[in-house]
């Protein structure tokens, strides 16, 4: 009986160790994924800023052409 209990405790300890390693690995992956998401958000914001600037420039150019009587 004592051997069975020792065997189960050893198995439990190994399973627990595997679970802790898996959890650490998942946390590392999550940290990397969050970094990727943060960088992607920054890129999206930068691109949106460029889109806004180009839109404003396009609008200004269209208004300038309209004032000069150039059909669009």
Which keywords apply here?
single chain; 72 residues; mainly alpha; 1 helix; 92% helix
What would you say this structure looks like, in words?
The chain is an all-alpha fold. Helix content is 92%, strand content 0%. It is built from one helix and no strands. The longest helix is centred in the middle third of the chain and has 66 residues, at 2-67.
Order of helices and strands: H
* Poorly predicted regions: none
Rg (C-alpha, Å):
30 Å
| Count of DSSP-assigned helices | 1
Mean pLDDT: 95
Tell me roughly what share of residues is in helical segments: over 70%
Terminal residue distance:
92 Å
Largest sheet: none
Question: Which helices and strands occur, and which strands form pairs?
Answer:
Elements: H1 2-67
């Amino acid at each position: 009986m004592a051997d069975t209990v020792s065997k189960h405790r050893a198995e439990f300890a190994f399973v627990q160790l595997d679970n802790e390693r898996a959890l650490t690995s998942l946390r590392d992956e999550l940290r990397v994924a969050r970094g990727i998401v943060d960088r992607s958000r920054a890129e999206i914001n930068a691109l949106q800023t460029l889109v806004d600037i180009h839109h404003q420039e396009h609008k200004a150019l269209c208004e300038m052409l309209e004032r000069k009587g150039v059909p669009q």
